[in-house]
Specification:
The chain is built from 25 helices and 29 strands. It has about 650 residues and is α+β, with helices and mostly antiparallel strands.
């Protein structure tokens, strides 16, 4: 009698904790009504939800409406498992109730800048978890709500022998699974020829990227050797597109002592594509050999997230790892892709630039992304497209006649480099920790981030950047305040009202800005002068020093200064600065430009930093003599009085 009472109490407690059965839970939720209607019409699934232990992954009404596949019994069974599993009990996979019991793949991903995690079932995100239910016989049930319907891989002819295929079986019988519109026989044949079939049938969980036949139209099949085949497989990780971390490199099977290939998934901004984005995968051969050169190959994902018994398959437009196109053909290939806007500009407005790329040898191209054109000032861009000479200058600023890799920038083996525009260089920087570096390039006053580096072509590299170089977007004030090379000059100008005028976009300026190293020379050679300028009590003198470097009324590039000097027919020409005159002598020595003022010879280390209201030239010397920074006795006395007052205040506070 006592045992019966305990069982009754225990059962009552369970009913309070776990509540209704799965079907009743579905019916109680208006946001799951469409899935509930499908269950009501299916006697088998309805019975399972009412009377048996299990876990249900229920898609919302919006998810059901977005699903274009069949909504039959197999569809419902693929969302159901026969074990009750709360979120913390989910492992890498969960067995579904679909015939053949194919797995549902679970991804647990840390939310950026948070201590929490988010969970995905295949490609669907869990948006509400651990809704508990119970059957009439007190068996536990769990409901998780997902934002996307789960799509299974089932043969179109209902052939039970093909249930729950692994990756190899899917490729072998692709037509039976409805992939006839995307033939994969070419890559499948290379798998057989290179004796790599075991990789695609090995149990476990891996990610397989399979190029369709169309991608082999320009790729020699013989180049797809065993190393290339292995470079399409990520072992031990099942990666669906939404659950992936964009840009995060993951080791492939081709990652040994000699050849190292990683893969990373991304969403590329492509106007006209669904949602404006196209998923892609990139291979990066970080260490290679003659047959497998270093570089990045990017391929669009044409059919994503095909679940299989041993992982997930993504069909891609072309083989990875293999470098098979020169730069021009790469750009043509991207005419509807990541560089759609850039290709359109070059093709329609600057065909000579395309010819220049064709004729040149080793190249590096910094190609602006689609977003770079979308986010640019459209008025400035329109004027640029209407001026073929200016457009050519801007395009040439993006072109370097040598190979510059991300490693060169990250390891600081290349800090600056000449461009096809003979007057301007590009300047590189690597920001952040070694494991999470951001690489930047500055050209013509625009600082851009390399959002995709090292795309390999037969004749060089392409880096995709997030801004159009040479189209200024910052005022002179914004530029000096944000640029670390000019921070000392910015600090000095902030002691008085000097910097304020640099924010005036209604006037044009030419500013010869001493670099931080230039001010360091003053500190070493003229310590007292440096102290007077930077101690904060001599704003007038600081302003006076900088006024020797500023020209008001014109924004003059190096080419303008050079032309002015040559037209003077003298070894020097004078320019009226805000304070005094600059005895200008412009000379070009071994690719560098120099200017002079009263015997001080300064190298222009960064010419033509263009701003919305003028041009900055960063120089390696300060164009003043100690005599230019005079401090009157009255100023000294005033400072002494202020210091005395300040000391008295401190003494009073200490009492």
């Amino acid at each position: 009698m006592k045992d019966t009472l305990y069982i009754w109490i225990f059962g009552s407690l369970l009913s309070v904790v776990w509540g209704e059965n799965l079907y009743e839970l579905l019916q109680s939720r208006s946001d799951l009504s469409q899935f509930a209607d499908l269950v009501t019409k299916d006697e088998l699934v309805l019975t399972l939800l009412k009377f048996r232990q299990g876990t249900l992954f229920a898609p919302t009404n919006d998810a059901i409406q977005m699903h274009r596949g069949p909504k039959d019994s197999n569809f419902l069974l693929y969302h159901l498992s026969n074990v009750a599993l709360t979120l913390d009990k989910l492992e890498q996979s969960v067995t579904s109730e679909l015939p053949g019991n194919p797995p549902l793949w679970v991804t647990r991903r840390k939310i950026p800048e948070s201590e929490d995690f988010e969970h995905f079932i295949n490609n669907a995100k869990v948006i509400e978890a651990d809704v508990k239910g119970t059957t009439q016989s007190q068996e536990q049930q769990v409901l998780h709500i997902i934002d996307e319907a789960l799509e299974s891989t089932v043969p179109v002819n209902k052939d039970s022998s093909l249930s729950n295929p692994d990756a190899l079986r899917l490729l072998e019988k692709a037509n039976a699974f409805g992939l006839s519109g995307m033939q994969v026989t070419d890559f499948f044949q290379r798998i057989i020829a290179t004796d790599r079939t075991k990789i695609f049938s090995t149990p476990g969980g891996s990610t397989f990227f399979i190029p369709v036949n169309k991608g082999f139209e320009t790729v020699s099949r013989e180049k797809v050797d065993s190393k290339v085949v292995d470079g399409h497989v990520v072992p031990g990780a099942v990666i669906f597109t939404r659950a992936s971390i964009p840009g995060r490199p993951i080791k492939t099977l081709t990652f040994g002592d000699n050849i190292k290939v990683t893969l990373a998934m991304n969403n590329d901004s492509i106007p006209g594509s669904p949602g404006g984005y196209q998923p892609s995968v990139q291979s990066n051969t970080r260490s290679g050999d003659y047959n497998h050169p270093k570089g990045v190959v990017i391929s669009s994902i044409v059919k994503a997230n095909i679940p299989v018994k041993n992982g997930v398959v993504h069909l891609i437009e072309k083989p990875l790892v293999v470098i098979d196109k020169d730069m021009v053909n790469f750009l043509k290939e991207e005419r509807n892709g990541r560089l759609q806007e850039f290709y359109k500009v070059v093709k329609d407005y600057a065909p000579d630039f395309m010819e220049e790329i064709t004729r040149a040898g080793e190249l590096t191209l910094f190609a602006p992304s689609n977003d770079a054109f979308i986010n640019a000032d459209q008025d400035i861009l329109s004027r640029l497209l209407a001026n073929s000479e200016k457009l050519r200058e801007v395009l040439q600023l993006h072109l370097v006649r040598r190979r510059v890799s991300s490693d060169d920038i990250e390891l600081r083996t290349v800090v600056e480099v000449d461009t096809a525009d003979r007057h301007r260089k590009l300047y590189f920087n690597a920001i952040g920790q070694l494991s999470n570096r951001t690489l930047t390039v500055e050209g013509g006053g625009v600082n851009a981030t390399i959002v995709q580096g090292d795309i390999a072509a037969l004749n060089g590299l392409v880096h995709i950047v997030d801004k159009i170089l040479g189209i200024p977007s910052a005022s002179m004030l914004d530029k000096i305040l944000s640029d670390p090379m000019m921070s000392d000059s910015a600090t000095l100008g902030s002691q008085s009202g000097f910097n304020l005028r640099l924010g005036d976009t209604n006037r044009k300026y030419t500013y010869f800005v001493p670099s931080n190293d230039a001010w360091l020379k003053i500190q070493r050679n003229h310590a007292s002068t440096h102290k007077k300028l930077f101690m904060g009590g001599f704003g007038y003198q600081s302003e006076q020093a900088l006024e020797h470097h500023l020209l008001i009324g014109r924004g003059m590039k190096i080419a303008d200064l050079e032309e002015l000097f040559q037209n003077s027919k003298s070894d020097r020409t004078q320019i009226q600065m805000l304070r005094g005159r600059l005895n200008l002598r412009v000379e070009k020595t071994q690719g560098d430009y120099y200017i002079e003022r009263d015997g001080i010879r300064a190298r222009v280390i960064r010419p033509d930093v263009q701003c919305t209201n003028g041009v900055i030239h960063v120089i390696d010397e300060v164009l003043i003599h100690p005599r230019d920074v005079s401090v009157s006795s009255s100023s000294t006395r005033e400072l002494s009085v202020l210091a005395s007052i300040f000391s008295s205040v401190l003494a009073f506070r200490s009492l």
